[in-house]
């Protein structure tokens, strides 16, 4: 299914990709809106949550802030690296410092590149800046013999202008499709390494990411 420009999506722990309300771009236009303002506002949103496991409850507000950022910041839209000829991917960290609780980066995938099947161990919001990606969604299956068994739930093609968000245990796989690299803006919460995995559906196993 092809994406619809301007749509917002939420992927839940059971692999359901749900359409969510989206703010119109023209309602978010600002004369000036910088990355540092965006990050400050995100941290203020998260400071209202007493338990970090409930941070993903703020995803509607975070999606709106992400759309406001990519609508107004030409700098964010254009800060990316060309995919490596060796790996077909590239990652540009937009902001980081010791102890900073957010991951903020732009990621490039060459056409045809496919990611591992993985979760993030935290909430995440991804905005499509350029190109197209096919996301395949998975969920865990109760199986006493194979605790890490997963099954495919569905898939969706996303295009520039769409935003997709994830609960901490949502499982997905990404493939860049089309004739040009897929470029995406990513923001994630404080990832817990013990909760982030990559999955192998053939062997029904999971390994730390």
From the alpha carbons, calculate the radius of gyration and give it in angstroms. Answer: 17 Å
So, the CATH homologous superfamily? Jelly Rolls
| Oligomer classification | single chain
CATH architecture level-2 label: Sandwich
Low-pLDDT residue spans: none
**Beta content:** 35-45%
Topology as a string of helices (H) and strands (E): EEHHHEEEEEEEEEEE
> Averaged pLDDT, please?
93
What is the CATH class name? Mainly Beta
Number of helices: 3
Helix content: 10-25%
Task: Describe the largest sheet.
Answer: 7 strands, mixed
Strand tally = 13
Through-space gap between termini: 29 Å
Task: Estimate the global geometry from the Cα principal axes.
Answer: globular
Keywords:
single chain; 209 residues; alpha+beta; Jelly Rolls; seven-stranded mixed β-sheet; 3 helices; 13 strands; 15% helix
Mind explaining what this structure looks like?
The protein has 209 residues and is an alpha+beta fold. The protein has a single domain (8-208), classed as Jelly Rolls (Sandwich). It contains 3 helices and 13 strands; from the N terminus they run ββαααβββββββββββ. The strands form 3 sheets. A 7-stranded mixed beta sheet has the order 2-1-9-6-11-4-3, with helices on one face. Helix 1 runs antiparallel to helix 2. It is globular, with a radius of gyration of 17 Å.
